[in-house]
Amino acid sequence: DGIDPSDLIATTFTSKAGKELAERLAAVVPAAALARLRVGTFHGIALRAIRANGAAWAMPRCMDIGERAEGIPASRLLWSKVLGWSDVPGLNRKGLDLDLERLGLAVGDYAMAADLIRSTGVDCSDAGARAAAAPVRLPMFWEAWGLFEAAKTAIGAWDFADAISAYRKGLLDGTIRDRAAIVIVDEAQDNSIVQLDIAKSLAKGGRLALVGDVRQSIFEWRGAAPNVFAEAGETLNAVRRELPYNYRSDDRIVAVGNAVAAGQSWNVGAVAVPRRGAVGGVGILPGAHTPMDEAEAVAERITAELGSGARPDAFAILARTNAMLGAFEAACVKARIPCVVVGGVPFFTRKEVLDVLAYAALIQHDSVTQCERIVNRPKRFLGKAFTDALKGAHRGGTDIVASIQDLAAGRFARGATALADDIARLRAAGWPSSADVAEHNLKGLGLIHGMLRPPPETGERADDTDIAGLYAAAVAIAATFPDARSLVAFAMECGAKVAGVSETGDVQRAAQGRVTISTIHRANGLEWIN
């Protein structure tokens, strides 16, 4: 059509997808033209445009990357300082001193709420927009968010959401002049209102193509706007071109997707039609099961299939949250099935799970090392001075509770007393027998979850982290072992045998010869099923 390559923009949902698209284009597009195409994520395209407009956004000052400049904290750490009683970086003041444990909340609840509101285009400093935003039932949320933004400004830090917001604002107010003759948005069902506003602004006077599949829309919980397809006829005067054939999955998997989408407000078009000849399917176990029972039944099925010649990498186990994956990891290791966790941290290397294991070990063993791990979980205001004193005071063969109580008689009175009381309470309850577990009496193990984090009073956050769920899952798995020693030995075995790979890493290579274990949303778009 005679379009200059620089006049074409193609956005992808992840940087990995952007690299793959660029590699495919390289096979059909001359190198000189490819170099002028704009292909990548909204964040990457936004940053290039902002910098071209004269703004100095140095990557070392980005809070969302690992290699940050000195003095630039991670976003989660800054939120923690704002909500706690630490000095807030860049501001001559303390944080809000919110007792999140008592409230049944976590730092991530505030970060998630802010991200959700920002995804709709609302700016924290805009009082009118704040008033019109959906109500947020988090104590002191707007004050906390205001402090968070003020601290970022004071220390010259930014995050990826800032890049998107600044780009959208510049496009709308004309301070950034950026247009394209053709804008193609891939995975459009997973993009936020802000991202779609950017796409519409870029394509103003040109053509906009939204490509996606509403049956794969699973990110609404974090700001995606899947209704864009259902509303495109009215809002964009769009023409819909349907591609009904699914070449990735077999008929049973496609049928599940069609069933989930049926009747939803965002569902548009005809049902998907499978075009893949490979045999596959979605397995659903009948009857009621505990998580471990279900996981072991799945492991038994996979073992039977492997005995008939199937390969481990022909199987994937998907769950809603990371907490649900622990039982499947444990069942696979018990059954000697090689597995890999995609897009997350293996269950038995997570800090929440290691905290549960430490408390579980202390029910039956005197361990300064395990005490050191959980000394401030929950917060007891005991630092290195206490742990050093405990190492000096405790001797092999003596009761560690007595050693802690001795220290409580001195300058560590308040925190040490609480720690000694908690361990004594666990030991008094004891380790559950198989009969106890059958009667749903987890004894000392059952106390650990509440000790680490009280049951939430305002509901769990909607992401896949599920901190309370991780504690509960670790306790449930621990209860399947006859004693602490065998539990810790098995956890170490799992930590050594279960591999992990990020969803942006080389998933196909990591999954070769292994069963894939992942949350549903992290598995979205990955082509790891052969």
Explain how this protein is built.
The protein is of the alpha/beta class and 530 residues long. It is 48% helix and 7% strand. It is built from 25 helices and ten strands. It has helices spanning 15-26, 31-34, 42-52, 75-83, 100-103, 107-118, 127-132, 141-155, 160-173, 193-202, 227-235, 251-261, 291-307, 322-334, 351-364, 368-374, 384-393, 400-408, 413-429, 434-438, 443-452, 467-478, 484-497, 507-511, 520-523, and strands at 8-11, 38-40, 182-185, 207-210, 245-246, 273-274, 316-319, 339-342, 499-501, 515-519. The strands form three sheets. Strands 2-1-3-4 form a four-stranded parallel β-sheet, sandwiched between helices. A four-stranded parallel β-sheet has the order 7-10-8-9. Strand 5 (245-246), helix 12 and strand 6 (273-274) form a beta-alpha-beta unit. Helix 13 (291-307) packs across helix 14.
Sheet with the most strands: spatial strand order: 2-1-3-4
Shape: globular
SS elements, strand count: 10
Count of runs of 4 or more consecutive helical residues: 25
Low-confidence parts? 454-464
Instruction: Tell me the Rg in angstroms.
Output: 26 Å
Compute the separation of the termini in Å.
38 Å
Strand content: 5-15%
